[in-house]
Amino acid sequence: MARVSQQHLDARRRQILDGATRCFARNGFHATSMQDVLREVDLSAGAVYRYFSSKEELIGAIVAEVLESVREAFAEATRQTPPDPPDVLIGEVLGRVLSGEFVRGRAAGVDVPRLLIQVWAETLRNETLAALLRTGYETVRVAWIGVVESYQAAGLMRDDVPAEHVARTMIATVQGFAAQRALFGDAPVEILQDGLRGLMSMDGQKPG
User: Fold this and answer.
1) What are the pLDDT digits (tens) for 113-142?
2) What is the pTM of this model?
3) Secondary structure class of 154 (helix, strand, coil)
4) Which of 90, 151, 171, 198 could form a disulfide with 156 if both were Cys (CB 3.0 to 4.6 A apart)?
5) If we measure between CA atoms, which residue out of 119, 91, 118 comes closest to residue 187?
6) Which residue intervals of the chain are DSSP H helices?
7) Do residues 104 and 13 lie in contact, with contact meaning Cβ atoms separated by under 8 Å?
């Protein structure tokens, strides 16, 4: 019997992950059965279970991949020196996330905000996945604290507010806008950028 190449094994695993991602994004983790996944990827049960022994294992693989890819989107944006202003930087990160660029397999038809909501919800009931989320968030938080400290050092941002507080708010802005997209429908990233520019224009002084 001819030996199956690693490339073939990797491609088959990718096929399964992409199909399962589409299913979960459409219907949620718990409303999707393994039979749904089998139909989506057009493979036998034996072919799928060779790679993933259960739906829980498949969910874990997808959640880990999504979280790592979102972390990469944040980290990439923070490597610029000097960093772009917050409205530009946050818009760039959010644009990459919402476009699906971070989905490793480029699974066609995936509604990225809906998938993110599914991931966040799943971590509330699964401690293993919650630990993955905490690790990913900590990496993003540290990176964005560095960005805020760069703003403060350059005199672009007031330095009497802890950098961590600003960083957490920037991350929450991305998360919140993604949640709005998932719950209330499509909206361009430019809306968020305009809103940030409006908030950034305030100098803390009440008009005469």
Assistant:
1) 888 888 888 888 889 889 988 888 888 898
2) 0.78
3) coil
4) 151
5) 91
6) 6-27, 34-41, 45-49, 55-77, 86-99, 112-123, 127-153, 163-184, 189-200
7) no
